[in-house]
């Protein structure tokens, strides 16, 4: 499901599903413990991004975020997979999205804040078929559902699911491909506060990609996305190609 936009999906909804509570650049401590039945994770970090910073400037001045996760190894019909849960709490305050001023340029009245943030998610992946002769070749199902406080978090809930696989086509055992669908719902308070000046819709999107392994070190891929954007009236279509060279 991941691939960081290099080997799999391009859309951030699949490559790094947003929660509204994890900044793109972290300053803190991350712990992962792998055991036979499950993998446990504990993150403690500054809720503010440290892009173009060292992280020591006013660190944790606006609170702290704690993220815990557990990921179980699951076998169904002799096929491997995972099921996991994420729970996150942040003490960072934010603007109260239900109190946005009714002006052409939305503003917040003094003192209009909401305390704390939270986020919960359930995620899974499951092989549907896996080749006994070539264990890396197979196809599986994945999905995730996440929900937040919805205020001050601007993203209320998200859902995604899809199929992905490697090989499955004669003489193309190194090729990989995927088909995914996501649905994102912004904060209800945010939508209601801005409805007089701006229409914010829920956003569904579909993405499909295929990577051709031309050699063990060179691949050529094609990608197509169809999105009904939350801010916009027309359906957006994005297509592209990529080349990956491994040294």
Structure in words:
By secondary structure, this protein is mainly beta. It has a single domain (3-245), classed as Porin (Beta Barrel). The protein contains two helices and 13 strands, in the order αββββββββββαβββ. The protein has helices at 12-15, 188-194; strands at residues 28-34, 38-45, 65-76, 79-90, 94-95, 113-114, 117-130, 138-148, 155-166, 176-186, 203-215, 218-227, 236-245. It has an eleven-stranded antiparallel beta sheet. Strand 1 and strand 2 (38-45) form a beta hairpin.
Low-confidence stretches: none
Broad structural category: mainly beta
Q: Strand share of the residues?
A: over 45%
- Kindly state the percentage of residues in helix: under 10%
And the CATH topology? Porin
At the first level of CATH, the class is Mainly Beta
Q: What is the string of SSEs from the N terminus onward? A: HEEEEEEEEEEHEEE
What's a quick, concise take on this entry?
This protein has about 250 residues and is mainly beta.
